[in-house]
Amino acid sequence: MDTNKTSATILQTKQHFEILDGLRGIAALAVVTFHFMEWVYTDASQNFIGHGFLAVDFFFCLSGFVIGYAYDDRIAKMGVLEFFKSRIIRLHPLVIAGSVFGLLAFLFDPFGGHPELYSTGKIILAFLCSVLLIPLPVIADRGFNLFSFNAPSWSLFWEYVANIVYAFVLYKIKRSYLVLLTIISAGAVCLVCYRSGNLLGGWSGPTFWDGSARISYSFLAGLLIYRSNRIIKNKLGFVGLAILLFLAFIMPFSKWNWLSEPLVVLFYFPLLIALGAGAVLKPGLKKVCIFSGKISYPLYMTHYAVLWMFGNYYTGHQPGNMQLAFIIIAGLILLVGAAYLVMVVFDIPVRKYLSDKRNERLARQKAGVFNS
């Protein structure tokens, strides 16, 4: 028996929903733009993309759908340990890369920062916690983020938690229980938003548990869409759905956020996932969607080091509107380019190396079983 083929069958990945991949890229660009603009407009009501942070909730919902689609019918065969290895190989190289970039930006920011205020031991500890996804909000110069050297890692922390819960509980429970958990989580989202006035929390020590509500509902909703086969056939295409998604990020930021944001997260994003899974993609946009999907995670995980430098530059120099617009547009383009380089030079080779090593190990294990 071909043991390499056997291990490949266990670990094989399914084809992607290209439009959903494309929408992931739109969401990543939105959150990066939001991070630029929140330095410029401390009053979020003046920020044209004041709800860009909701892109994270879209990521969570998409993740639930994709995990269910990719693993529901094969996690029992591959085993929980191999599932965890698959997720770590997929996600963690960029967690490390983002932490390294964040550390370098902290130490060598030409526009400001005060690394001299922190002991070497504290910096090393914060870096190790960032690499290992252990929350440690202790660096004031990094806004007391859960992960001092790569703020977006807070969502990866909860993504890992969701994957663990999926592997041990969610993949084998009945749909009726999944519906119940989703309803309970929806109540948690509403409570968090009503208490805080928005769903911006999750990234810092004081708002830590807000992140659990955000991942719980959206991940469960995405998983429920897949399990219920709530895929809506339509002809909106990538462009139409991208516009609909972007509208969620530019809706007015107001005193009604406690109502508008839960409506978007609880109903609008799951609807877009269902529409995206059932939409027809024009052949000419397939490469755009594939690239958008591939670049989304590298962009999300590597951009924030530059954002701290931008923030220090902006507060120190107060550039005019025209100059600021040029800097932000150029910054977005350069960050996409840098993310592409990181993906090609580091992320893809590392993941391929680790996957090849794992496949070789599985093949040897299978060979040992058949030869015994």
Quaternary structure classification: single chain
Helix content: over 70%
Q: Which class of secondary structure composition applies to the elements? A: mainly alpha
Mean pLDDT: 94
Distance between the termini: 14 Å
Shape, per Cα inertia axes: globular
Rg (CA only): 21 Å
Profile the largest sheet. none
- Provide the β-strand percentage band: under 5%
| Number of helical stretches of at least 4 residues | 14
SSE pattern: HHHHHHHHHHHHHH
- Which consecutive residue ranges, at least 5 long each, have pLDDT under 50? 1-11
Number of domains: 1
DSSP E strands, number? 0
What would you say this structure looks like, in words?
The chain is mainly α. The protein has one domain. The chain has helices at residues 3-11, 18-40, 55-71, 75-78, 80-108, 120-132, 153-168, 175-196, 208-227, 237-250, 257-278, 286-302, 304-317, 321-371. Helix 1 packs across helix 14, helix 2 packs antiparallel against helix 3 (55-71) and helix 8 (175-196) packs antiparallel against helix 11. The protein is globular. Residues 1-11 have low confidence and may be disordered.
